[in-house]
Design a protein that fits this description.
21% of the residues lie in helices and 34% in strands. It is α+β, with helices and mostly antiparallel strands. The strands form five sheets. Strands 1, 2, 3, 4, 5, 6 and 7 form a seven-stranded mixed sheet that branches. The longest helix has 29 residues, at 122-150. The protein is globular and about 75 Å long. The N and C termini lie far apart (65 Å).
């Protein structure tokens, strides 16, 4: 794996310079002054001293407009400021972030959200920094003592790498960005879009939403980094749900994502997507349930992206290779073939758009002040490396800019923009032909095509089954005898990763972006996956859980309301 690092103690000077904007300069200056004052004392405290401080402030403005059945029921415009202080005591070799193996390690992942005053008053800001630094320093000392005691009674870990890797200091300040949108106009648009569902009384819940977020992240640390990164995005969401006669709850959703208001869809595009969701939801509520099945299938591009994110991406996050509680699926497989030789995978959070569409997982710096970097994970089927935070692991001592978190959480290595590429691409028609041919070979009357997947979850720990479940939303059955494709419902994809990877036989040439959010130990973060459609010779599905309640007894009043 190519390591993109800068040697020496030089400062990275980015193309932007510090803004003369009073608020920006004041926040960074206050953070730096209080950090220096705190470190001057805490680095000399005996017997346990601090060797590293990192401050991160999150300024967040969220505007949310939601309508249902033509009426506005949410219209929010809120601002928050959150503070995270990371204190490391001991040494880079062994510090307070070291894993506790005595059964209480889960305590590290309980969120500790610290909301502070949103004003830029230096005194108020420095008092908040002082108080949180003191609290985190005491917690760090307490945990470090427990870690030292535990090492006397526990076996040596399989990976004895240090607990922290240094990084070259960074100086970077983005230009100011503001939300630019006519919210009065969009309130009317959202209400109008949502009124379309009034004509369909069998739809029991529906929403059209507009969300705009402005996020400014400030970071300073005792290595000398000073960073301000700005992010503004806009998202339009469409959601509708119904219930089949047997009580199965069914829903479909779609979202449009853009970094600029100019990138939002036209009214016609939103209406077309609403119409598609209504048509598909109507087909789903009338569709037969698929029985448990093992056989050939196609996962269409976005669904394929979610598939790789869940069953592959989480297993190559660096901290999972070091934790004694993790299954370590790929830890010892660097240099070995783990995927078909026509598949390569990288994670590249430095790309902001693909095929003219904005990418939600894009960022410039991770939450440890390290520049985002392109990482080759798999090359021609062979595992090359992992996604890394500043936690060293055996064979990979440095960060590659993937230490991420939601405010109030601890940083771990996470995915950004997972990009799956193939050298064995064919058209969708050829994928269908391959599916039908394989079904005939296996004497299966049909195969499955997964068009949409809402997400999923995967278990990577040793304490349970190291399996995955992916939740399809829209699936069709493809018959080998030439019957028309049939919409089906009630299936979840399940399996184990190594077996599933071995069944990938062919890919499409239809790359598409999945833009979403991912929740894990370090909270909910924006992620993306880019992938072509894939054909697998064998996949397993099981019955989805369903409600035992009947559909509504009374008909919807929508047909009566004028």
């Amino acid at each position: 794996m190519k390591k993109l690092f800068f040697s020496g103690l030089c400062m990275i000077l980015c193309s932007t310079i510090f803004s003369t904007e009073t608020g920006t300069a004041g926040v960074l200056e206050s953070m730096e002054l209080e950090m220096e004052r705190s470190y001057e004392t805490l680095s000399k405290t005996k017997p346990i001293s601090a060797y590293f401080l990192h401050y991160e402030i999150w300024d967040e403005r969220n505007v949310s407009i939601t309508a249902s059945w033509g009426a506005l029921y949410r219209n929010l415009d809120k601002k928050h400021r959150y503070l995270d202080v990371d204190v490391r005591v001991g040494s880079k070799k062994l510090d307070n972030t070291h894993e506790i193996r005595g059964g209480v390690n889960y305590m590290d992942w309980i969120p500790s959200i610290n909301e502070i005053n949103g004003d830029d008053d230096p005194a108020a800001l420095r008092v908040a920094l002082w108080a949180e630094t003191d609290r985190q320093f005491k917690k760090a000392q307490e945990k470090y003592i427990r870690i030292q005691a535990e090492r006397q009674v526990k076996v040596t870990e399989s990976d004895t790498s240090p607990d922290f890797s240094p990084s070259t200091p960074v100086m970077h300040v983005d230009e100011a960005k503001e939300i630019r949108l006519d919210f009065g106009l969009w309130r009317e648009k959202v209400k109008e879009f949502s009124s379309i569902f009034k004509d369909y009384p069998w739809i029991y819940s529906s929403q059209i939403s507009l969300r705009a977020q402005q996020l400014t992240k400030y970071q300073v640390n005792t290595e000398g980094s000073k960073i301000r990164e700005n992010r503004v995005f806009y998202r339009i969401g469409v959601y509708a749900s119904t219930m089949a006669d047997d009580g199965m709850e069914l829903y479909l959703s779609y979202s449009f994502f853009s970094f600029a208001p100019e990138g939002l869809p036209s009214d016609e595009e939103v209406i077309a997507q609403i119409d598609t969701i209504i048509t598909h939801l109507d087909a789903l509520r009338k569709a037969p349930i698929v029985e448990p099945y093992i056989g050939p299938a196609i996962l269409v591009n976005k669904a394929s992206g979610v598939f790789f994110h869940e069953i592959f991406g989480h297993r190559v996050e660096g901290h999972r290779q070091k934790s004694e509680f993790e299954g370590q699926t790929f830890t010892k497989k660097v240099g070995e073939k783990i995927l078909p030789d026509f598949i390569s995978i990288r994670d590249d959070p430095t790309i902001a758009e693909f095929n003219g569409k904005d990418i939600n997982g894009y960022y410039k710096f991770d939450d440890e002040g390290v520049p985002a970097q392109k990482v080759t994970i798999v090359e021609s089927g062979v595992l090359k490396g992992f996604l890394k935070s500043r936690l060293p692991i055996e064979g990979f001592p440095e960060s590659n800019g993937h230490g991420r978190r939601q405010y109030g959480r601890k940083v771990v290595s996470r995915q950004g923009v997972l990009f799956v590429t193939s050298s064995n691409e064919v058209s969708m028609n050829q994928l269908r032909e391959a599916l039908i041919t394989e079904c005939k070979k296996q004497k299966k009357p049909f195969g499955l095509i997964f068009y949409d997947i809402s997400g999923g979850f995967t278990s990577t720990g040793r304490g349970g089954t190291q399996t995955f479940k992916v939740i399809p939303l829209f699936v069709k059955r493809i018959y080998v005898d030439g019957r028309p494709d049939e919409v089906v419902r009630g299936v979840d994809i399940v399996g184990t990763p190594l077996l599933s990877f071995a069944k990938i036989s062919l890919t499409g040439n239809d790359y598409e972006i999945f833009n979403g959010s991912c929740g894990a130990e370090s909270g909910m973060i924006p992620v993306s996956a880019i992938s072509p459609s894939i054909f697998v010779s064998e996949i397993e599905v099981e019955k989805k859980s369903k409600s035992q309640d009947k559909p509504p007894i009374l008909p919807s009043p929508l047909g009566e309301v004028k």
